Amino acid sequence: MEKELFETDVVIIGAGPVGLFSVFELGLLDMKCHVIDILDKPGGQCAELYPEKPIYDIPGMPSVLGSELVDLLMKQIAPFNPTFHFSSMVQEITKLDNVFWEIKTDHNEVFKAKVVVIAGGGGSFLPKKPPIKEIENFESNSVFYSIKNKEIFRDKELAIVGGGDSALDWVMNLEEIAKKITLIHRRDQFRAAPDTVKKIFSLIESKKIDFIMGQVSKLSGEGGILESLTCKTTEGDIEVGCDSLLPFFGLTMKLGPIANWGLNLDENLIMVDTEKFETNEKGIFAIGDINTYPGKLKLILCGFHEAALMSQQAFRYVYPDEKLTFQYTTSSSNLKKKLGVS
């Protein structure tokens, strides 16, 4: 695979709410951004863990769903036209000279930027794998922890495991195109939005999908191609024929390559100052849940505050010869023009 080369003002690592709002704050100061995220879509935890979960502490919003907040942030940053690189993990950050950083991903992308903003939440998202012997032999061919193209499951017999939003949402999304779906969960109660649960029970009652209360204990097949699975239930083992297994047990977060970037850490969190939210490396900032400092609160609204202050210092690295003039979006005709406000 050939290297893809990009040059920009700022590289933001993490497309969660705080990373997205950084695009807005940096854009107001005329800084162009490329945003890298290991997930296949923007939103971070709001998109992966609680898209239908209400959030109650965003200023001015008595209640907003995680997915709605992401949609609003994407609309807010649209005037600044950021470039997104999804399903990519940053592997290396290297100082090129006194001005630029070089950032490399596992997809052979290479970025040259004056500023790096780490907004990676608690680190990299990795799927929680079920404790099934030799499951790794079927991964990528028949076992999938996320879905990037649902068409590959058309006319297939699917076993979906889990009782949360992701599992149930994909049951509903795939029910119309799959040949057969068997939903497997250790209980007959689900941890998902009430409306979603109601729809799932309706599908079960109408026999449009099968439901087994139990746990997958064994996978059978050859050459990485799944043929059937064994499900352990209170009434004994049940064999289920299937082409693909989709386990949705949530995600775990690991610091990953960040631990090797030479940044000062405190219990796997990046230490920053509270004036600029800069790390021990000049030009590298950490905002949101990934950072730590005295009095730190892991709240989205605190990450928004950190993004605003970070952007003030980032401007000085990107435009070292220019004077930074503080402006309000409510009164500045210059800022309104950038936002497309008449």
Detailed description of the structure:
The chain contains seven helices and 21 strands. The chain is of the alpha/beta class and 342 residues long. It folds into two domains: 4-125 and 252-339, FAD/NAD(P)-binding domain, CATH 3.50.50.60; 129-249, FAD/NAD(P)-binding domain, CATH 3.50.50.60. The strands form six sheets. Strands 1, 2, 5, 6, 7, 8 and 20 form a seven-stranded mixed β-sheet that branches. The protein has a four-stranded parallel β-sheet with strand order 12-11-10-16, with helices on one face. A three-stranded antiparallel β-sheet has the order 13-14-15, with no helix packed on it. Helix 1 runs parallel beside helix 3 and helix 1 packs parallel to helix 6. The longest helix has 19 residues, at 300-318.
What labels describe this entry?
alpha/beta; FAD/NAD(P)-binding domain; 2 domains; 7-stranded mixed beta sheet; 7 helices; 22% helix; elongated
Portion in helices = 10-25%
* Main sheet overview: 7 strands, mixed
Can you tell me the number of structural domains? 2
Q: What is the architecture of the largest domain at the second tier of CATH? A: 3-Layer(bba) Sandwich
Radius of gyration: 23 Å
- The topology string of helices and strands comes to EHEHEEHEEEEEEHEHEEEEEEEEEEHH
Give the end-to-end Cα distance, rounded to a whole number of Å.
46 Å
**What's the CATH H-level superfamily name of the largest domain?**
FAD/NAD(P)-binding domain
Task: Assign the structural class, choosing from mainly alpha, mainly beta, alpha/beta, alpha+beta, or little secondary structure.
Answer: alpha/beta
Q: What is the mean predicted local confidence, pLDDT? A: 92
Could you say what the CATH topology of the largest domain is called?
FAD/NAD(P)-binding domain
The number of helical runs is 7
CATH class of the largest domain: Alpha Beta
Strand content: 25-35%
